[in-house]
Automatic annotation (TrEMBL):
<feature type="domain" description="RNase H type-2">
    <location>
        <begin position="20"/>
        <end position="220"/>
    </location>
</feature>
<keyword id="KW-0378">Hydrolase</keyword>
<dbReference type="InterPro" id="IPR036397">
    <property type="entry name" value="RNaseH_sf"/>
</dbReference>
<dbReference type="Pfam" id="PF01351">
    <property type="entry name" value="RNase_HII"/>
</dbReference>
<keyword id="KW-0255">Endonuclease</keyword>
<feature type="binding site">
    <location>
        <position position="26"/>
    </location>
    <ligand>
        <name>a divalent metal cation</name>
    </ligand>
</feature>
<dbReference type="InterPro" id="IPR022898">
    <property type="entry name" value="RNase_HII"/>
</dbReference>
<dbReference type="InterPro" id="IPR001352">
    <property type="entry name" value="RNase_HII/HIII"/>
</dbReference>
<dbReference type="InterPro" id="IPR012337">
    <property type="entry name" value="RNaseH-like_sf"/>
</dbReference>
<feature type="binding site">
    <location>
        <position position="27"/>
    </location>
    <ligand>
        <name>a divalent metal cation</name>
    </ligand>
</feature>
<keyword id="KW-0479">Metal-binding</keyword>
<comment type="similarity">
    <text>Belongs to the RNase HII family.</text>
</comment>
<dbReference type="InterPro" id="IPR024567">
    <property type="entry name" value="RNase_HII/HIII_dom"/>
</dbReference>
<keyword id="KW-0540">Nuclease</keyword>
<keyword id="KW-0464">Manganese</keyword>
<keyword id="KW-0963">Cytoplasm</keyword>
<feature type="binding site">
    <location>
        <position position="127"/>
    </location>
    <ligand>
        <name>a divalent metal cation</name>
    </ligand>
</feature>
Amino acid sequence: MTVVEPTLRLERSLLKDEFDLIIALDEVGRGALAGPVAVGAAVMDAAGSRRRVPAGLRDSKLIPERRRADMAAHAAGWVQASAVGWATAAEIDDVGIIMALGRAASRAVDAVSGGAVDAARTLVILDGNHDYLSLVHRSRLTVRTVIKGDRDCASVSAASVIAKVARDAQMAQFHESHPAYRWDRNKGYASAEHREAIRTHGLSPFHRASWAIADAPTLF
């Protein structure tokens, strides 16, 4: 399988004339049965876009688990600022996954910007094809959705691995109090062992109780 190397071509072109700052966003945990959804944010300015992309930076799903923590630390040091925004399983149950993603993304943007950005000169690059940030965030930031942005845009790849490592660490902590679900291995996704534990033990406070969990397909 050919591995696509993420680049800064898009970021450089946008920062050349149109914008002073890019905030790249990517989500982790959208399809999980348990745990929060996390949105990583990585900030890139014109000077930063001229720096070499760290060797081995990829969409987090393409980085071996044993290397992700080191790559996340490297990525966080490479970008100008980074953060992770969260929305809990209870919030997902309360407002739905799309609005919860918007809340998490808004929190990530506020964390890297201090709650104050020049909306006219700041662009958000959002992985995927749906702008969930604008549903929630109070400022009128320009949002550009990019399908496979986590694969192709290095700033989004950085946000991806930072969020993935943070959420995996959170699920490992939850595993300590609820070991039957093996969140240290499945990270809250619909593995066969996770579904069997739900059938045996029922739902925990960290499960998304509003979802049709019993009918969820096995993802791995």
